[in-house]
Specification:
The chain has about 350 residues and is of the alpha/beta class. The protein contains 14 helices and twelve strands. It has helices at about 20-25, 30-45, 50-60, 70-85, 95-110, 120-130, 200-210, 215-225, 235-245, 255-260, 290-300, 305-310, 335-340, 345-355; strands at about 65-70, 90-95, 115-120, 135, 155-170, 195, 230, 250-255, 265-270, 275-285, 315, 330-335. Helix 3 (about 50-60) packs across helix 11, helix 7 crosses helix 8 and helix 7 (about 200-210) crosses helix 14. The longest helix has 15 residues, at about 70-85.
Length: about 350
């Protein structure tokens, strides 16, 4: 049964690989260093016997601690499927991204290492990677992921996407009137009919990169001249479209629109080019108490089995092996490390255009 986190668990590293020979020869004065090095070493093992050794070692550990921002309607079935397949308990803790990030950093400062694996939006996992709280890992299923979505340091891997699409109220806007490309929304006829999520400066930066700097910059200046409404939160934006308060939302999350449609709201969407994809990702703790179970769980999430389960729950898996009928358009994945590096400048540019504009 999936259970919530209690006390910190005893650390075990039964997955014996070549790297452990050096650890075994260490003096007893360095056990903390040996533990810190053990997980990153086993994460990269690629031997032909990897799968069986990993399963055996993970079963000896007996449990895995998973921190996630994923809704219980998805995270609990995913954890239950893993438990059923391997007989390994999943200790599940869910919280919003910033709260989760703060908890992990606080635990690390106290050297109280609790989590084994995290699933969150890639901005959060990237921040953890930069603190060396996550480690590079190998999984045979990484080969199924879009290369453009994998960070150079490989300290996290995308497991699902959300797509930023144009959503509209079907009672107020005809599908045929939606432009094929974003430049069409620069037409003055869209004045007082458009809305954006209030903090989507990374979307703007990725759009400018996809459109070309000159063309993209010119478009956003034209869009700003139309004074689109700014609404805080992607779910709220779609709710307002369904209620008729907003006619067209240029930065709606596809999953939110599909949820609204399923509940009978008068909303629909179009993949206006360029479509931007926001990644969510998994990462393994550098100081994981149960590193073998963490690695096995990452294999499960990235495998066709785990990715297919996400697909059946209305999420959009990252694996190219799973074909979702809605995703039949090209898309550009947000460069998360790059966006964080220049986030302050791009946020200021966004604010100058849409929030502080006179």
């Amino acid at each position: 049964m999936i259970r919530k986190i209690g006390t910190q668990w005893r650390r075990t590293y039964p997955f014996a690989i070549a790297a452990f020979a050096a650890i075994a020869s260490m003096t007893p004065a360095a056990p903390a260093l040996a533990q810190a090095q053990a997980a990153p070493a086993l994460y990269m093992y690629r031997g032909a016997d990897r799968n069986q050794k990993l399963i055996d070692a993970a079963k000896k550990e007996g449990e895995v601690t998973w921190y996630t921002t994923m809704a219980p309607t998805e995270s609990r079935p995913l954890a239950a499927a893993f438990e059923k397949k391997y007989g390994i308990k999943v200790a599940l803790w869910r919280a919003p991204g910033e709260q989760m990030l703060q908890r992990i950093i606080t635990e690390a400062q106290a050297r109280h290492y609790t989590f084994d694996i995290i699933e969150s939006d890639s901005n959060q996992t990237e921040k953890l990677a930069r603190e060396n709280l996550t480690s590079e890992f190998y999984s045979p299923f990484i080969a199924d992921l879009p290369p453009s979505a994998i960070p150079p340091h490989r300290k996290w891997m995308p497991d699902r996407f959300n797509y930023i699409v144009t959503a509209f109220n079907t009672n107020k806007v005809k599908a045929a009137d939606i432009p094929k490309t974003y430049e069409g929304f620069a037409d003055p006829k869209w004045k007082d009919r458009l809305a954006l999520e209030a903090s989507d400066f990374i979307w703007m930066d990725t759009m400018i990169g996809a459109m070309g700097k000159d063309k993209g910059t010119a478009f956003f200046r034209q869009l700003a001249d139309l004074h689109p409404d700014l609404r805080k939160g992607h779910p709220l934006l779609v709710k307002l479209i369904g209620a008729g308060e907003v006619q067209v939302g240029l930065t709606a999350y596809l999953a939110n629109v599909e949820s609204g449609k399923a509940h009978g709201e008068p909303v629909d969407w179009a993949p206006v080019k360029p479509v931007i994809a926001v990644s969510f990702s998994i990462a393994l703790a550098t100081n994981a108490p149960h590193p073998n179970a963490a690695l096995l769980f990452s294999d499960f999430i990235l495998s066709p089995e785990g990715q297919g389960l996400l697909d059946t729950m209305g999420r959009f898996p990252a694996s190219t092996k799973i074909k979702n009928k809605l995703i039949n358009f090209p898309f550009t994945v947000v460069d998360v490390p790059g966006s964080l590096d220049i986030g302050g400048k791009k946020e200021k540019a966004w604010n100058d255009l849409f929030l502080d504009r006179k």
